Amino acid sequence: MRTSTLFFIVIVVLAVSAIGLFFFGFEGGFGGRGYGMGAEVPRSVWLVLFGVPLVVAVAVLVYALVFPELSEERPVEKPSSVPAIGKGESALDAVLRVLNDDERKVVETLVAEGGTMLQKDIRWKTGLSRVKTHRVLFRLNKRGIVSAEKYYNTNKIFLADWLTKEKSLNTA
Questions:
Q1: In what order do the strands lie in the sheet with 146-151?
Q2: CATH number given to 91-171
Q3: What 8-state DSSP symbol labels residue 85?
Q4: Alpha-carbon gap, residue 98 to 86, rounded angstroms
Q5: Mean per-residue pLDDT of the chain
Q6: SS in 3 state form for 22-38?
Q7: Has residue 126 got a pLDDT over 50?
Q8: CA distance linking residue 106 with residue 121, whole number of Å
């Protein structure tokens, strides 16, 4: 992509430069007085029209030589959204590795309480503010680590099944 774009720029700039050189060779262009209402175009205009594009073309070529493309077909690595689980490591441990401090605190509290708690109780156990607790739970819910359902004036928070099932399989 970059090579074709640079090639196109060089071709266009050299074409403009060639036109400027062509008109510079004549006295004021074709016929000398064919521009506008009988006014003659000064030779310096044609010299600029020749010189500036030539300088731009040289600059583009130098840029292409100094910063060559490494490869057009670079493999694009996408970051994995699922943490890699090492040998002997549970999914819960892998999830805890990628969470920030507040999220980790909430998940560890849920695990300690059996996987289900009220949102207001999570707030008190973790020491987070009401808004902070809501935001952390929203992010965890969005990632599928917890789920929530309305429970009177608060929410009942559940740890994801795929985290609780593995925990029960490891203890059995």
A1: 116-118, 154-159, 146-151
A2: 1.10.10.10
A3: P
A4: 14
A5: 77
A6: HHHHCCCCCCCCCECCC
A7: yes
A8: 11
Q: What pLDDT score does 109 carry?
A: 94
CB atoms within 10 A of CB 22: 14
Kindly provide the residue ranges of all beta strands, DSSP E only, lying in 77-125, ordered along the sequence: 116-118
Q: Rounded to an integer, what distance in angstroms lies between the CA atom of residue 137 and that of residue 103?
A: 8
Beta pairing partners, 151: 154
Q: Find, among 114, 92, 88, the residue nearest to 103 by Cα.
A: 92
- Distance (Å, rounded) from C-alpha 115 to C-alpha 166? 12
Distance CA 125, CA 84 (A): 30
State how far the Cα of 53 lies from the Cα of 11, in Å rounded to an integer: 10
Domain ranges of the chain: 2-66, 91-171
E strands in the chain: 116-118, 146-151, 154-159
CA distances, 70 to each of 2, 3, 61, 74 (Å): 11, 11, 16, 8
Q: pLDDT at position 90, please?
A: 79
User: Is the backbone of residue 158 left (phi > 0), alpha (psi -120 to 50) or beta?
Assistant: beta
d(CA 150, CA 32): 86
